[in-house]
Write a structure and sequence with these properties.
Number of helices: 10
Oligomer: single chain
Largest sheet: 8 strands, mixed
Radius of gyration: 23 Å
Amino acid sequence: MNNLTLKAGVARSDITPPVGFRMQGAMRRIEPSVGIESPLLATVLILADEKTKVVIFDCDLIGFDLPLANEIRQAVGKRVGTSPRHVIVGCTHTHNGPCTARGVLGGVHDVGGKPEDIAALDAYISNLVGQLAGLAAVADGQLQPARVGGGGGEAAVAINREELSADGRILVGRNPAGLTDHSVAVLRIDNLNGKPMAVITNYAAHPVVMGYHTYLLSADYPGVVRRIVEGATGATCLFLTGAAGNQAALSFLQSDWDEQERMGGQIAGAAVRAFFEIETRPHQVIREFDTSLSNIALYHKEFHEAPTHQIFKAASRQVSIPLQPLPSLERAEANLAEANATLERLKLEKAPTTKTYPASLVKRWAEGVLQKVKAGLKQESLSFEIVGMRIDDCLLVAMPGEPFVEIGLGVKKRSKAPHTVFAGYCNGVLAYWPSAETVRKGGMAVEASVKTYDISAPPVAETVDMLVEEFSRLLTELEA
């Protein structure tokens, strides 16, 4: 019998940057933020027994570049005494936060950043690393015996956003016939008396309800989910964005803040219902008979002492996904010539930054690809870590980047656990991970995104299968 005691601690901090920081996630939006719609928060949950300690963050940010994510994981692991591999730094992927993915996704470290803006962001990021490590230390100091239970519901908020136009182009829009995942996963964490401590909620839809005409810092719909769930349950809520690479909310790129409430409210409603269906205290249901004017069968819970858990383990795997082959020298030179011509034409026309800024990103990408081709590179790959933890019948797995929903559904199908949470946007952002169909048809996730993420080519068509297989190996280790 397991004699270890599971413990949990949770803490939260405000990580909202000063008004005036540029927001990240819309390539055409380079003007500074003008206000705050909702505070950006960092929430951390630590789960530990005498052998294993796992740290889970939920940050209202678009994501961290891989080196920054690793720096945070190292700092947190050192501060609380656990392996960096057991630190999961999740970001909601709101597009209305600061530029924490340096050098990509239209941030100030990308094209067009002013020196003073870069210096201010660097200071914010430097402070943020220490702030997150300190926040983890606070949660670690509040550890108390706990139990975890899993459940879930559904919310028809997500829609596949790979829309096919009449002329055959792939648009970022609505594809009602496309694959979606409407499941709302919930992990409930209580103390031994059944009092709520924390709850993890999880949903696969891009947190981009609010669009690029918005200049208020905002947590987008995940902030609404947390607020409603916390108000109803009394538990501190963490939100982990799922396999949302090709998933939008039904209301997408809006200017009406009520749409953010509508989207988040539906997901929160499903999460609250699932939360109250979960009983973490060990018990059995007793059936008794009684009589009044009628014969009555009475049912009640009889609670009993039991270990806090039987299984708690964490695991990780290093993964490498190949990109498609680089173009020929002639094609790479032509791409750069075309990018230069486009940018020069826009400048002569005195086009607005909404046009010149994206064109500058394309030029930057074309220059980089040409340099790689001239250096003799034929094909590149992206390497990163996938991670997971298991507590009895609850499983959480996570990965960097923007996974398509096919990956999340594939992993859930392979999982033997009754309750599986799949999270993307964890421990860094570096690319979209598209389906074979999208690789074949094209569209933003394999065309524009290689420019915004500044990678030489899209991932190969077999990406989904490769990642699901890698997660299957991780599941085997966790489920053993």
